[in-house]
Design goal:
About 35% of the residues lie in helices and about 30% in strands. It has about 130 residues and is of the alpha/beta class. It is globular.
Length: about 130
């Protein structure tokens, strides 16, 4: 659990491997207080996400909020993985998080799937491409 006791900001990150897809599921809030810790937690997964490595799917179903600092971490992950041939996406964002992704145009940076299962199906299909 990544926590800043001063503000009560809490974010958990769970990881699960499903075939050649790593599902990272943040829970809580990602903001300026814990974005660096979030970035450090996802870095090893992003490093492995290349044309020969696992695909990376962020399950946002338990994410209450993401600030611009958190979006920056997702952008950096995308900038690192995609040029290396990796595939990265987000799935099942809550209504508020989806709105933040759309307003900030992050839905144009990487695919946003309505459900985790849709993301898993797309990433499992080699014909689906990037």
């Amino acid at each position: 659990m990544l926590e800043d006791v001063r503000k009560g900001t809490v974010m958990e990150l769970n990881a699960a491997q499903k075939n050649n897809i790593v599902v990272l599921a943040p829970r809580g809030r990602i903001d300026h207080l814990n974005a660096d810790a979030f970035g450090k937690a996802v870095a090893p997964h992003v490093e492995a996400c290349n044309k020969d490595g696992p695909r990376l799917l962020f399950d946002l179903s338990s994410l209450e909020y993401i600030s611009s600092a958190g979006l920056r971490i997702l952008m950096l992950a995308s900038k690192r993985a995609i040029p290396a041939g990796g595939r990265i996406g987000v799935a099942a964002p809550t209504a508020l998080v989806r709105e933040i992704l759309e307003i900030s145009r992050f839905d144009l940076v990487f695919p946003v799937f309505d459900t985790v299962n849709a993301g898993l199906a797309s990433f499992a299909d080699p014909a689906a491409g990037h």
